[in-house]
Each structure stands twice: as C-alpha cells, then as structure tokens.
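Appendix C reproduces, verbatim, an entry submitted by the partner laboratory led by Prof. M.T., so that reviewers can inspect both the input and the predicted structure.
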Amino acid sequence: MSTQCLLGVFLTLLAGLSAAAEVEQVHIHHDGHRLPAYRARAAGRGPFPAVLFLHGGRGGAVGGDPKASVAALARAGYIGLAPIRLKPNTLKTEISQTHSALAYLRNLRQVDPQRVAVVGFSRGALDRALRLATVQMPPVLILVAENDTRQADHVELAQKTRQQLQQSGVAAEWILYSPFGAPTADGHRLFFAVRSNYFKDIVAFLSQHLGHSQAE
C-alpha cells in the first residue's frame, strides 16, 4: 500500500526560515473544467515526497494561505500543491476535486507517488469524510488551538474525530495549542496565516511518515 499521511482537521502549514521558494500557478483537468492550483517544489533533482494542501472556506472563500503554504512545503523538502476549489462547494464535489488534484500530483515527474500526504485546513480537512475511515487509512495528525470555539467548538470536534479514528484502528494523534491572540480572539485565525513557530510539528510528522527527498 502507498505510504501516505493526512494532517488535518485544523491545520495550516507554517513558514520555514530559509529562502523563498518559487510558486507556479497551474491548472488541473477535472471533469471537463480547469481547476486552478499553486505548485512549488524543493530544490534538487528529486524524486520528492509531495503534499497536497486543501484550503478552508465556504461559498468560494479561500481560508488559510495556499500560496504561502506550498512555498513552506518546498522549503521543507517537498513538492507542494494547493488546488483552489471550484463551485459548488459541496462535500461530494470537494472530494471529487481532491481526487483529481491527487492524481495530478502523483503523476508529476519529480514526485515519488509512494510518498504523498494530504493537509487540510478547516473545511479543507473534510472531517465528515475522515469519520468514514477504516484501519487501512494512513496516520492522521489533528492540530487545533485551545480557543478555536467561536464558529463552533472545534476543540470538541477535534477530540471526537480523533476518538472515532482511533476506534476505527487509525493511528490518530492531536496537538492542542495554547490560546491564540487576545483573550476574546478567535483561535481559528491561528491557522489563517503561515507561522514559523509551529513548523517543527509539521516537519516532524511529515518526516516520520514520508521521509525526505532523495536529493537531500
């Protein structure tokens, strides 16, 4: 079985400290449409492990920072791809677009198709789909801020999702971060931007399950 990992439910990728990576705008063929996406790759020849970043947001909104996220992934030694979802934003269409993006990513010449991860931020984590997981599903890491309770109690949702995954035999972990911002702030906003101080958690999980590029 392919080696994959999934980082989600409320996850953003965080910036590294090295030089900026070049980000390309590409299009993915999906059901007769062109799905726009950002793509960036690590320096070197490869083949590289790869990570698909799924943004948050409903009704055409783009939650998180897909462009900066793929750049951070490239600096960490991966090929990053972030599709920008097409309307209508139903769970069914989002999953279908995700499959098209994964197929595109795995078929890139410089990608090792056996080492691919998926990262989802907020709605991009597709938590309702996660609950249908079985023991064959790869490991999952769930990140959430302690005060991410304004739109919904995402802390409770993260706990329940982790428990459901574990009951299904999936190796699921979670990290609960201290409250983000002022006492009345919305902790969900922790993941709206690329932030370097959490990058070590992302890199550690990716490195554990995907390793590093052969170019390194």
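The chain has one domain: 3-208. Additional entries are available on request from the coordinating office.
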